[in-house]
Amino acid sequence: MFFKSKKSLGQNFLIDRNILELIVDTVKITNKEILEIGPGSGNLTSFILKKNPKKVYTIEKDDELALLLQDKFNNEITIINEDVLKVSEEKISNEKLTVFGNLPYNISTEILSKWIVNIDKDFWFESLVLMFQKEVADRIIAESNTSKYGRLSILSNWKLNIKKIVDIKPQSFSPRPKVDSTLLLFTPRENFFELKEAKNLEMITRVFFSQRRKMLKKPFNQIFKDSKSVSKKFNIDLNLRPQNLEPEMYFKLVKEYESLRN
Length: 262
Fold this sequence. Notes:
The structure is a single chain. The chain has two domains: about 5-190, Vaccinia Virus protein VP39 (Rossmann fold, 3-Layer(aba) Sandwich); about 200-260, rRNA adenine dimethylase, C-terminal domain (Helicase, Ruva Protein, domain 3). It is about 35% helix and about 20% strand. It has helices at about 15-25, 45-50, 65-75, 110-120, 135-140, 150-160, 200-210, 215-225, 225-235, 245-260, and strands at about 15, 35, 55-60, 80, 95-100, 125-135, 160-170, 175, 180-190. The longest helix is centred in the last third of the chain and has 15 residues, at about 245-260.
C-alpha cells in the first residue's frame, strides 16, 4: 500500500536502519509495555517488535496510516487512531510505559509540555525516547547563562532528567526535512519541586523571558508587590538577566509567588 506523507501533519518517516536500531537500543524494552507516538509507516515499530516487548500501543492520528499499520502488523500492536494531544496516556495501561516518538515537528513542544504539566506525583511512563528538531532539542537541554536557555529549558528540567543521545541528519528521513534532528532520553526526577499549579510556572517564565535582555528588576516588579524583599530572601541580584537564573531558582520563585497569594 503506497502512502504519501502529509506536510500538514509534519510527517517525515525515519528510514535509516542504523538510527532505528540505535533508538530501540537506547533503553531496555524486552517484556515492557511500549507506547509509540506517530509510528508513521511502522519502520520503528518493526524494530521495537524485534525486541520482544510485552505489548505495543501506537497513537496515530492519520486514518490512512492507521489502516496501513493495521494491515502491516495485524494483532501485534494496539492502534489508537486519535490526536495525541487529546489522549489521556495515563489511562492506556496500568503499567508504566516506555515511550518512543518521532514527534511531528509542528506540535513537538506542545506534546512535551502537555505531558510535563499533567504529571502528578506518579509518572505514567518509565522513560521517553523522543526525537525533536535539533533547534528545539537545543532549547530543551540548554543550561542557564546560554543564549538558547529559556522557558522550555526550565519547564523540561522541572520533572525530568534529560540526556542527549544523538543528532540525526536529514538523509535519515523520507521525505527529507530541511533541518537536523536530535534524539533525547527523558527519565522521571525522583524529587521535583511541587507547585500548586503548573500555569504559575508558565506565567512567571513568560513574564521573565518576554524581555530576556532586560534586567530582572522589571519582571520582579511585575510579579511581586515587594520585589526587594523577595530578591533579598533568595539573594538575587536584580541587575542580572533572566538567563542567569538556574531552573531551580525559578521553581523557588513560583513557590514564593504561590505562598504570597494565599
